[in-house]
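pasting input
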Amino acid sequence: MALFLIAQIAGRPVAIESSQVESVVDIGTVIPVPRAERQVRGLAALRSRVVTVIDTRAALGLDAAEVDAGRAIITIVEGHYYAILVDALDDVAPFELAPLSAGILLDKGWLKVGRGIVEREGEPILAIALDGLIPGALALAA
Amino acid sequence: MDDLLQEFIAETRETLEALSGEIVAWESAPDDRDRLDAIFRFVHTVKGSCGFLDLPRLARLSHAAEDVLAAVRSGERTPDTRLVNAVLAIVDRIGEIVEAIDAGHALDDSGEDLLIAALDTGAEMAVPQSAVTPRSPSRSVRLNVDLLDRMMSGMSDMVLARNELARRVRDGGANPVVEAALERLSLTVAEMRDTVTRTRMQKIDALFSALPRMVRDTATELGKSVALHIEGSDVELDREMIEMMRDPLVHIVRNSIDHGIEAPALRRALGKRENGWLNVAARQSGNQIVIEIADDGQGVDTDRLVAKVASAGLRSDAQLRAMSEQAKLDLIFEPGLSTKDMATAISGRGVGMDVVRANVEQIGGRIELRNTPGRGLRIAIHVPLTLSIMSTIGVGVRDQRFAISRQVIEEIVRVGGDMIRIDRIGDTLSATVRDRRMPLIDLGDLLGFGPRPPLMLVIVSASGGSYALAVDSVLDHEELVIKPAAPAIMATGVYAGQTLPDSGLPMLMLDCAGIAHVAGLVFGREAMVEEVEAEAVVPGVQALLFDDLDGVRRALPLSVIDRVEPVPAAAIRFSAGRLRLSVEGAIIPLVALGEWAARPTVSVVRLRDGSAEIGYAIGEALDIVELPETVVPAHNAGPIAGVVAIDGDQIEVIDLHWLFASHADAGTVSDAPLCLFDGPETAWMTTFLKPVLEGAGYRVATALRPGETPRVVVRMSDDPTGSAATVPVVRLRRDADGDDDSIFRYDRPALLAAVARSTGGR
């Protein structure tokens, strides 16, 4: 049983394993980064640190939200700090990670972040890996 | 040097501590390759450091151990217990000597020959004799970098908190007492920040300062002569990086001198200058520091390298054949490989290059080789800027701010006025700033804000050329801590890093070279090459090339030429012992190295050295040329200083010094010492003495103008007046014989000497 953070992204609940989570913060002013990919919303200051803010909807290939998300999960990938924007945070609880049921095919960006399923009171929730949302990180590792 | 020694001691001590585990592990498993490599690296590093710190005993021990370990690495020897013991005894001994150096003790060196002998095959087991040496307390501490990082970020937090506090205090109405306290806090915080920053940053000079001595010693040892040039000593680098760069740099420089630069005799035979040339330069390029070590030696013989690799069985023939030239060159980094057959104390067997690469890669850097067989090797070490404080200028585009490194900014100009034109050439923007035309990049447009007429131009230099960057506003100057941005941001190619200025809002730093690249500016390879060449060539002396009167082609440095003009031959006379030219009511000495009388007019070059003027008659002026650096000196002193080769022609260069020394009039220059003739005999003096004194470079007067003071007064000895006591007086007598301090008036040498003495020796 690992600890999972249940968050809302694009109106859907997702589970994020707590080992990927550095902290959960409210993001203030975001300075845009011209010419960067769409999923890079910009830069924000987190105390003395500059974090790269990831527009999760854009990273998943979804349409932009009507209201900007203000909460974010901070994760560290290859030494860089990223703020992953989420709509809301629901819960932190231990869950058992199960593989995706056979035959379920994820679409769009979900495919590259989906890692399995956790079950909350009978409701299956997609468990995601945050580094799949980070542009350039995987390419760099390859 | 003391600093270096301290660092060496601290480093060796630390490595030894870390190594002690490895040593024990190696003892139990002598076949373990990783342990072997770790110990090998240690002795190799010690050997390298000893060389330039002048520690012969340590050098000898480490060299011996390295030899044996190299043999083990290459499989020539098997590590048995005896060998392991012998190596460990040496490692222990190194530790003892280091402690002794630090404490300033003398340590008996009697056992060392035994220790070294024990390394030989079949030698008796050596009994390591360990002496207990007390450690001396050290005034420096070595800190974990993580700790420094935490200190840095804590510092930044403090600055931000201070800023917020200041804002609150301002908003809540000013209380002078609170403001004063805040002011003090600000000062302390600023000072602290400076100090904390300094704990990490260091000028690369700390790395370069040991080079001159090392190069000299290494070159001397090898019987070579090497001229070292160092550039960019003031580039600042993370201390951690500097430490990590020390060994690689030492190795590369030694390799360059040992393997690269040829012996003087060979160089002469190859038509190179006897002195080898070694250039070590550091510069910042985008988000990297580049340290470049270039020599003009023989470069790397890749064929030999490949043969060596093949014979060592490191790669298969097929593999080697399929390699590109660059890949072959990179074989130099193979572990346990050497291109030089003889091992020397200087650089071993070319080992080190694998260690070098390992060290550089450990800090996220990379090494690039550019080999020109027969002409030299250029090694560039690229080190990432993990952390650096940079002097930046803030620029505004629409409502966003960006930072530009001050280093790349040539100038900043406001659009408007006659000096600046902005045109469209085809669809490309170009700016003309004071007759200098350059490409223009609209930063706003490039960053996707849409085009707008430029308001300010920042002229920046990118590799190979300059361009103008149009921005909306230029804000302020700030010292910023630049950190690398996330890969997705760096991938845009236009940013060098990110920073958090005092405003508390993140800011991106622009990479001006990257912007030029993204905008598709091409300055051309040729332009770059030219620039590199231009760096190497010292601006030469411009000279006038002409055909002389005797038909010989000669050159005269341009800087002394006042003008060239035709004069009628009648203006030239041989008078008063030399050729003279009358021009503009004056008479100047003329030099002619050929026949001029037959010509109706003669071209005369008028030369000036600042005060004196000489005419030089020539046949015909031809061209302005640049004199090459090397002048083959003339056989005898005379009007010709030497010969240079210009376009394959032998051109004589006029010896200006000789010319002015032997031809210029000592002259009646206004600052010449004034000599006053006094008394009733001035008429005789004016007639007889004046030319003599003027010829010797004095100014002569019989009466003083207002404000003038003579430096010497000349009087007859029987003249009773003795007015000006403050001015030295030279007295003349009419008779050849006399016993007083006066001088016979026709004794020319004595007279001149006396005047010279009185005026303070001219």
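fyi The longest helix of chain B spans residues 2-28.
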